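Provenance and format

Records in this collection were gathered into a single text stream. Each protein contributes a sequence line and a token line. The two records reproduced below are adjacent in the stream.
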Amino acid sequence: MLIDEELTPINCVSKSVSDPNLARLEFIKIYEIMAPISNDLLVKNYSNFQSLAVFKEFNDPFDQSMLFAGLGKFIQIYRHEDRYRNMVIRLNTILDLFVTSVIREIEIRLKQEDFKEARKLISALDNLNLDIGDIEVDSLEALLEFFLDRYVNSYSFLSSKDTVDRVLKRATYKARGVVKGHYLDFVEVDNIFNQVASLLNSQLNEIDRIFDTNADEVPIVLKLMETFLGNYFIGGLVEKLINRAKHIDGLDEPVDLEPEPEDEKIDPPHVNIMNENSLYFQCVPFLHHKLLTTFENLNYPQSSMDSTDEATKMDYYPVIIGFINFYYEPHLVEFSDQLPKQCHQSLVHLIDTWELNKVENEKMLEQEILKFVDDSSEAQTNHTFDIFSSFTNIFRLKGAKKTEKEEIENETKLTKFAAKLQILTTNVQNIKSLVSMDLTVLILQHVKNSYDLLLGLTKNSATSEIKASIYKVCQDIFIDMLSTLIDRHIKSGFQEALTRLKEYNPAELEVNVDYKVEPLTNFIELVNVGDLILQMINIFYNEELVKNEIVKTKPQKSRDFLSSNQCEKTISKLEMMLDTYVADGLDISIGVIMNEVNLCILRSQVNEGTYNLVNMEQMGIKNGQPSVYVKQTVTILESHFKMLSESIDKSILDIFKEEIGERFIATFIKLLTKKLNISTIGAIQFITDINYLYDFFVKYKIKQTVQYLVAFKEISQLFLIECDDKKKCKDLGKLVIDLGRDNGIFSPEEVYSFVSRRSDWVSIKRSVDKIMYGFGPDDCTIV
């Protein structure tokens, strides 16, 4: 109010005076104006107050509201008088009538779309927003109730049973996402939310036109949104949908549904491995997502929080999110509690389905191969045979002269052999697919889907408790996923691979040699798959859990087993398990590789004549090259050393190579002392072979084996010595003693046993023995 403005009943009480000397004078003026009005209105003419002259002078609702507001403040001077209580009661009654009449007038103006006049009437009600305890009339609350009553009738479709039936429909076919004969119609949900958005935008637009960005519209908008969400949408339709979904999940599976026709199959949106068997798990996250996006994209009024030029705009969405979280919280909590169990069940189903498909594919492949066997009856009875344990029985084809009938039978047996050999080859090749990267990718994607659902629930979450609870659920899901993957897939896959590796026996396969042991090659590929899976899991852990701050971690340098969280301990469990399987596989592989080496020696027909050459023409055939069995042995070992060097840790590989070298030396010594006879001419070839082996083991730095071969290089010189007289025989004996004493590897007795493989040993043995032992057998007499 301006200082020089004339005092009237509608403005006098609102005038403020800062000069104490003028206060008494101003009070007298106000009293002279308001006392007669309060006396006429609240004492004398209470029952017929509409006829008072003051209302004829101030007949505009806005002016009248100013008068009532001033009157409410003025009568506070009578607070300690007996008449005050009656005055307050009468004023409250008059205000009730006034507010009711103004709201009725607002309704009329809105029907006429006279928003300017409606806005003026609302301002009149705003004038009555008095902070006086005895004045009980709440004009703002009355205005809120008016707008709610105006809009709630348009929400009736949300409470209709037909709306629920439109969303959760009966299925015609059994398809993905169909649960107990029902499915969630995501398109219909979109339609309903679009209808809701259109309706709310229309109402918000009307409110905006009425209030014209005035701050008074803020409580109206918020009250409307809260009432709609709490009573009609989340507390109404959404709750009915979720309860109905849970009810359907608990029904029995219908038996009359036929599979969906191939030409009509579609991949339903928002359905994945985790929720395809539960409408509840389809509903809760999808409805939450629709709530967030729908209310985020509403056309809220551009409400100003004050009337200054730099007025702050009201941001409705965070407040609305608070309403959504408050009313949806029970569903979020229940969903996050149920999700780990649902996730585990779907993971188990996924792995079991993969394992079942693998077994079925192997059986189908066996049956397809066995179709080509002539004896169909035997094929039918033996299609489930144990391929490895029964394999030896099908190679016994050798025998005496056969009749024509026997020849025909052998043709059939050979056909069976070829079929079973193909099955064996297939099983060996399948070692590398016993653990699946594709399955792991599916599982990680499944967990990622679950995380997206859970973390989507925390978007703009109002409570830190819910967020902490959901983060804990995410950790539990990761740990359960990894434990399930280990126990139900990786462990069984590697155990099956080790079994096949153990049962592989190359000596039973009369086929051309391959310089790589097929099961070991495939086992190493399986190890590589295991390493890649471990890397994928580490990447997933860092990207999804660490970066999103779902788990708290210490820096890598200061982290140990005790300070690691449970997720990291489970990853370490997988890492240690893979290391154990690698060690076990390599231990088995050493035996398998040495079997392959022995088979190579057998196929090369190494015998007494290999080095027992009688002339240089036979040496010419060799042309200075190492023997076939030596070259093939080196090729076998080198191929596996190279393969393993790219696949396993160097420290493990070094142990592996040392063990291979040790076993090879044992095999070579056995071969030398049991089979070989070496002539002085053949010694040249023997030395060539020793040097070839020496160069190979030096190349791969297998120190212990190199030391053995150094000793063999020295011993091999003993085979070159011509012993055509006794002196040379004595010299040979002395060399045997010296080498036995000085080589540091073999004892004199062992050197003696090697030298005894000379082709002329029978003729020189007596002379050598006499040098070594001081006498020969002929020097002994029986007394």
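Adjacent record:
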Amino acid sequence: MSTLVIVESPTKARTIRNYLPSDYRVEASMGHVRDLPPSADEIPEKYKGEKWAHLGVNVDSNFEPLYVVPKDKKKTVKELKDALKEADELVLATDEDREGESISWHLLQLLKPKVPTKRMVFHEITPEAIRRAIENCRNIDEQLVRAQETRRILDRLYGYTLSPVLWKKIAWGLSAGRVQSVAVRLLVSRERQRRAFKQGGYWDLKASLEQAKKPFESKLVTLGGTKVATGSDFDENTGKIAEGRNVVLLDEVQAEALKERLQDKPWTVNSVEERAVKRKPSPPFTTSTLQQESNRKLRMGARQTMRTAQNLYEQGFITYMRTDSVHLSDEAIAAARSCVEKMYGPEYLSPQPRQYTTKSKGAQEAHEAIRPAGQTFRTPQETGLSGQELALYDLIWKRTVACQMADSRQTHITVNLQVEDAGFRSNGKRIDFPGFLRAYVEGSDDPEAALEDQEVLLPPLKQGDHPNCKEIEVVGHETQPPARFTEASLVKTLESEGIGRPSTYATVIGTIVDRGYAKLQNNALVPTFTAFGVTSLLEKHFPEFVDVKFTARMERTLDDISTGEAQWLPYLREFYSGETGLDTQIKEQEEHIDPKLARTIELDNLDAEPDMTYRICIGKFGAYIEAENGEGVVKASIPEDLTPSDLDPEQIEKILKQKTEGPEELGLHPDEKKPIYVMTGRYGPY
């Protein structure tokens, strides 16, 4: 008897083949074998005349999807059919999540097997896991398939209905997406806040003190019993102290005068407070937290993280990397605790095994958290891995082992000092027992070095002590605008708001960058002029479809469909054809959208000269400035490397000056004696 096993990828097939008997044949489907038509030329001839054909979904007949085998998959499907002819049994062993269940269902529909068929699932590729999976096969979960199909149809209707509006009104080739458009709106909203931000300045003092020949620092916190202003006391809309704040705001002159007044005056310790603090380790990784931490620690983007994690999974190094669960199996906990005892000693073990509970309602709880594969964990050095694969495995190994370690015990120390009418404060931190921090410190590559950085040791101080003041320094500060999103912080926000699924975030962020909605600058996602234009149009004419709460409710409904708590067909009808449905709104709104206005971007703080009006527009070849005064209109292209964040009145003047007065002359060519100009074009200076 021979058995055909189908998985998604050749790497996974090679690994599994080693753990199965010789009469098992393992083949790869190369991902999805069937999908909605990716382009017009893939729509079957008999459907091309239908008005719904471009959607790939028959919206007039219960939203029936039109599935096709893409041209590049026809050879794979034929090979799988040929392999099935020689088999006595078919085992569908695609991934255990919604997407994997969907691939298995499509394979079943396409191959139409006449032999017994089973569904095999596993979350790690080890000999034990594959053996258990073979013994515990099940049927395809039709409810899970239907939920995934609804999600796919919903995404298709959203993208293929809204995107053409953007093509007509702004520029060809733009795209809208259920999660993508909300994510872009988050980036644009943050950039608007940054542009509207008014900076404030404040000054304070920093003292270098010494007690028993041990140096420490102290910062000014009060003056005459009133709190000294810090950045949190400012109103970001005015750049001034927020209304109702009773604080002392020092300028440079006042700070210098205070410094002079306090020179050579006696210092006294008013109070010393010590507070015991316990820190618990973070749960093991989910898809979302792995992407966040990999971005923070390893500077890997979400796509690169998922690609690397997929390789590690398929080679049998880690468990399945698409999971919302923080659960660990008993054998995984035992393996982690064994590592702790062996590498750090029994005193570093948590008193009881730690088990974490998943809070996300939509979590696919059958999964475990992402952890090293197997009943015993290979240390990073034992894997033979290198490069990014080694770095990511090391991160996963440390996080998993740390979650079974003892709490970190610390003492936080606050020392309040007085000199004349000025109150100063010193903060210290002592690590009494590092616990899990020996293995893993969030945001740091080197736990031992991070432990040293985390400690702020103060000399022994008690009330009534008189430390010596070595120096007082005047320090100026400026308030900072809200930070831009990084890939890590965007993933965190999307997950906390319940938008989309963590398994799709890497693709969404990749699309945002690839389609020109954002640029990656110093690990930050900076929205482009196109992002501003598209977001403004959607906010004005289709606000519900880029609303965070509406999108989160949509996600919850999709989860309810997967558990049978909601019906898929009534939901799709309401979403698309209802009174406030997408198709209804497009028909009502499209004719009211003025392309000229849609291509004009509103930006704050572009104060022009008197009698001059600036407009930022999106054209066929990118963004450009339109400057208008009584004499006429001047248009000038904005270089592609400039984003809305870079555009201020000075930059606009520079671009317009080159357009109206010609380029700046640098000098003469040494041989030909002709002038050399510095110019700024579409792709920057040249």
